[in-house]
Each structure stands twice: as structure tokens, then as C-alpha cells.
Design a protein that fits this description.
single chain, 317 residues, alpha/beta, 13 helices
Length: 317
């Protein structure tokens, strides 16, 4: 028996119902929606947990030039966040603590053979939050080709949305728990808290700062400009882990940033929905209502993060 010809099997002449029948797609339907903003609290949209956040010091590895403390920070009953405090021997009492949120792993910059915590710099707090570094999902036993798909971030993000707690909100919970731990720790209790976040972690870092006045300023490297651009782009390149159902009915990233003023935000190499570095003028126009410094390129190195140019002056007294 000969197989049917492709022209016979097609439901339309072209084989594409959108092209032949001028059908609407999810993209065109979503873009054509007329949205009237309504007020909503950010923590309710994110489903942030406000439990009893605790922390404890579990180790003090010896080091000749740097004081190292290893902490466990509890953000949810079954979630413990590995956190490292690195303090150079001559760090002044007025230096801030810099919470570094690396999109790959907290130790990537700070625990390499040639890495140093510069003298006179801030106290470094390097931490992994849910789905990052030491908290990557466990690789399940069984056939690797099947198991690998189940540990991908997107699958966990979908599961989180289905269960009513977006992954980005869980990560915000983790950041707020770490900030609380820093405020309770004797070495950092009276220091200003600054956050440096890269890539996909810029969104939860911004949300966390909007919810916690104790976060003094932000350095966001290679972060998304706005979610409106995702809706306006039929093909986008941004992780589903940062999606919040219904967010654009209430707010967007530039509005969240504006709510932080007069606290300072540095936007370095911000990207559009397709993952392409946005033009400085476009970013400046988007964030006209926020207290921002816009840099054309993302930089994520030890030298950059501890440089005084990242946070030139305290955002507030």
C-alpha cells in the first residue's frame, strides 16, 4: 500500500492553519489583550513564604588572608541554603556586605585557585538559592535520557506554577531569608546590604529588594528589561522560572524598580526578550522613573563586583 500524498493529508492547502485560515495564535491573542492595571501586592503575586527564617554557622575553614564562615540558612521547613561569608582580614567596619547571586553556582567566582577576596573590599556573601549550584535538582536514577528531562529548570518551574507557588517567588523567599540571616549575624548585622545578581537571578533580586527595605542597592548584570517585551515578542529567550501568572495585570519590572527609589540600581548590559543586549537609550526610557545607573555591558568578575564603581556612593545615609 502506498502512503497518502502530503497534499491529501493536509487539513488546509498550505498545511498551516494559521497561514491558510488566518487563525489567531496564543501570541496574537495575548498581545491583543487590553489590560487595565489593578493594584496587587507583590508578595501576594509571588506567593512569598513568610515563615520563621533561621540560620546557623556550621564551619569555619582555616584561611591565612580571609575569614571564612559556612552558614546554613533555612528559608522553608525543608529548604536549607548553603551560604559562605568571606571577610578579608583588614575589612573596615563601614564596608557593606555584598550578597552575590550567581546564576550557575555561588562558588564559581570566589573559590577558584586564582581567586582572591581583595583587601579593603566588602564582606562577600556567596549563596545558592533554589535550583542553583548545590541546590540543583537531584538527577533521578534510571535511564539518563529520560531522567535528564525531569531535572530541567523549566519542568520545575511549570510544576511550581501548577502548585500555585512560582519558582521566582520561592527564590525571592530564599533571598529574604539570607538577608534576615545577615542582619542576625554579629559580623554583618550593622553593615549595609548590597546585592549583585547575574542573568536570570536579576528578577528575583529586584523583587526581593522591593519587598525588603534592608537591601540598600542592586547591581543587576545581564538582566531582562521588562516582561512586556516578552509578550510583544513571538520568539523570546527567557527562562520560565521567572514567569509570574498575571504579573502584567498589575506591574512590570520598571515599575518595581521605581518603587525602590531613592535606593540605587545599576543595570549592566540589560537584555530584551530575545536575550540581545538592549540599547542604553531604550533602557533609560523604560526606567525613567527609577533611580538607576545604566551601563552598556554586563560584567561579572571578582574585580568588577568589588570595585567601588559598582556602588559609587551609598544610596542613602
Amino acid at each position: 500500500m502506498n502512503p497518502e500524498a502530503a497534499t491529501v493529508l493536509r487539513a488546509t492547502e498550505s498545511g498551516n492553519v494559521v497561514r491558510s485560515l488566518h487563525s489567531a495564535t496564543a501570541f496574537t491573542l495575548n498581545k491583543s489583550r487590553q489590560v487595565q492595571r489593578t493594584p496587587a501586592t507583590l508578595d501576594s503575586l509571588l506567593r512569598v513564604s513568610h515563615g520563621r527564617w533561621t540560620s546557623k554557622i556550621i564551619a569555619r575553614p582555616p584561611s591565612p588572608q580571609v575569614t571564612i564562615e559556612v552558614l546554613e540558612v533555612q528559608s522553608d521547613p525543608s529548604v536549607w541554603l548553603p551560604t559562605w561569608l568571606l571577610t578579608a582580614k583588614d575589612t573596615a567596619p563601614d564596608k557593606p556586605v555584598l550578597l552575590v547571586l550567581d546564576a550557575l553556582a555561588s562558588e564559581r567566582l570566589w573559590f577558584q585557585p586564582d581567586a582572591e577576596v581583595p583587601a579593603g573590599g566588602p564582606v562577600i556573601c556567596a549563596a545558592d538559592i533554589r535550583g542553583i549550584g548545590a541546590l540543583l535538582p537531584e538527577f533521578s536514577p534510571g535511564q539518563p535520557g529520560y531522567a535528564a528531562g525531569h531535572r530541567q529548570e523549566e519542568n520545575y518551574a511549570w510544576g511550581s506554577v501548577i502548585l500555585g507557588k512560582p519558582l521566582v517567588g520561592q527564590r525571592v523567599t530564599d533571598i529574604l531569608a539570607i538577608v534576615t540571616a545577615l542582619r542576625a549575624h554579629p559580623a554583618t548585622a550593622h553593615r549595609r546590604i548590597q546585592i549583585a545578581a547575574a542573568g536570570k537571578l536579576t528578577v528575583p533580586a529586584l523583587f526581593a529588594a522591593a519587598l525588603d527595605q534592608r537591601i540598600d542597592s542592586l547591581y543587576l548584570s545581564g538582566g531582562l528589561t521588562c516582561f512586556r517585551d516578552v509578550v510583544d515578542s513571538e520568539i523570546y529567550n527567557h527562562t520560565f522560572a521567572n514567569f509570574v501568572p498575571g504579573l502584567l495585570n498589575h506591574t512590570d519590572l520598571p515599575e518595581v524598580a521605581a518603587s525602590l527609589a531613592p535606593r540605587r540600581i545599576v543595570l549592566a548590559g540589560a537584555v530584551n526578550a530575545r536575550g540581545v543586549t538592549a540599547k542604553v537609550d531604550e533602557v533609560r526610557q523604560l526606567y525613567a522613573g527609577a533611580h538607576v545607573i545604566i551601563e552598556p555591558e554586563e560584567k561579572w568578575t571578582v574585580e568588577k563586583l568589588v570595585s567601588s564603581s559598582v556602588f559609587p556612593n551609598p544610596a542613602r545615609p
